Amino acid sequence: MTLQPPTTDDWVALTDQLLEVGLAADWVALPGCGAVVVFSGLVRDHADGSRGVTHIDYEAWAEQVEPRLGAIADQARHRWPELGRIAIWHREGRVVLSESSVVVAVSSAHRPVAFDAARFAIDALKESAPIWKKENWSGGSDWGTGAHDIVQPHGVGGTQ
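Above: the chain's sequence. Below: its structure in token form.
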């Protein structure tokens, strides 16, 4: 599915399409915002204990991903009410070297808020989105190392 801008100031998405980092940066930019921070997580050629990674296959519990990403955006807005726009996107399926698997972009009037909110959003996504990665390299593959239990983001399916 091609990413289409929403009519709101929060754009969350799970897609099998290439993530256009420039589109995220351009979309979050608003006239009242002097800061845009973009984080793009790329597939690299190594993982813990593995060299020669060629690609990552991402699997997601699709019905739960976007509500959880939306809850992360809501929580960021609660913590930093002065945020402009927020984009939180993640890929599913095969992602090859140097492609973005995740993009977080935020805007605000000032840089400290934008940096803090972007870091919060990527950390919360890694902690709470039901997305799993299988790293593939010549001669083998394995599910991503450093896995942990998925926690419920604040505001989805109860309180935390």
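The longest helix spans residues 62-79.
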